Amino acid sequence: MKRIIAITFVFLIGLFACQNANTPEAPEVKDCVKYNTATIQFENRSVTNRTYDVVWDGVHIATIGPWEKTQVFTVAAGEHTMTFKVSNSGKLACTTAYPVLQQCGVYSYFCTG
Predict the structure, then answer these.
(1) Does a structural domain hold residue 52?
(2) How far apart, in Å, do the first and last CA atoms of the chain sit?
(3) What pLDDT score does 90 carry?
(4) 96 conformational bin, left if phi > 0, alpha if psi -120 to 50, beta if neither
(5) Is residue 3 in some structural domain?
(6) What angle do CA 37, 99, 45 make, to 5 degrees?
(7) What's the rounded Cα separation, in Å, for the pair 56 and 81?
(8) Which domain covers residue 35, as residue numbers?
(9) Residue 100 burial (CB < 10 Å; 0-12/13-18/19+)?
(10) Is 41 exposed, middle or buried (CB count within 10 Å of its CB: 0-12, 13-18, 19+)?
(11) Cα distance between residue 85 and residue 47, in whole Å
(12) How many structural domains does the chain have?
């Protein structure tokens, strides 16, 4: 009886070990796919040596001096509103744009105003 239990136990351990060894792992899903995001960065290429405020979807997200770049931002994929304004004036430095970001896309925007 003990021998049957021992053989059964060894068989079950082998069965579970084989199942675990053959079980495929799910592929890793990128965060940008999981959360439907893209990355963006902004650059000031001012020919007038002005500092710009970057307004994204109505929210001021950065101030950048001439020839500077911002940090990289992770944002939702889809349509957005982007405005570069001359700092401390509220005047547009470049025409307001409406970029459409694709999932996992990497984008860089600049203004030369």
Answers:
(1) yes
(2) 89
(3) 87
(4) beta
(5) no
(6) 105
(7) 6
(8) 31-111
(9) exposed
(10) middle
(11) 14
(12) 1
Residue that has been written with the tokens 């349509």 in this structure: 79
Q: Are 33 and 24 in contact (CB under 8 A)?
A: no
Kindly report, residue by residue over 34-68, the tens digit of the pLDDT: 999 999 999 999 999 999 999 999 999 999 999 99
73 falls within a domain? yes
What are the DSSP calls for the chain, one per residue?
-HHHHHHHHHHHHHHHHHHHHHPPPPPPPPHHHHHTEEEEEEEE--SS---EEEEETTEEEEEE-TT-B---EEEESEE--EEEEETTT--BSS--B--EEPTT-EEEEEE--
**Residue 90 is assigned to a structural domain of this protein:** yes
pTM: 0.75
69: domain CATH number?
2.60.40.2190
- Where is average pLDDT lowest: 14-23, 28-37, 75-84, 88-97? 14-23
Q: Which residues pair with 38 in a beta bridge?
A: 75
7 has a pLDDT exceeding 90: no
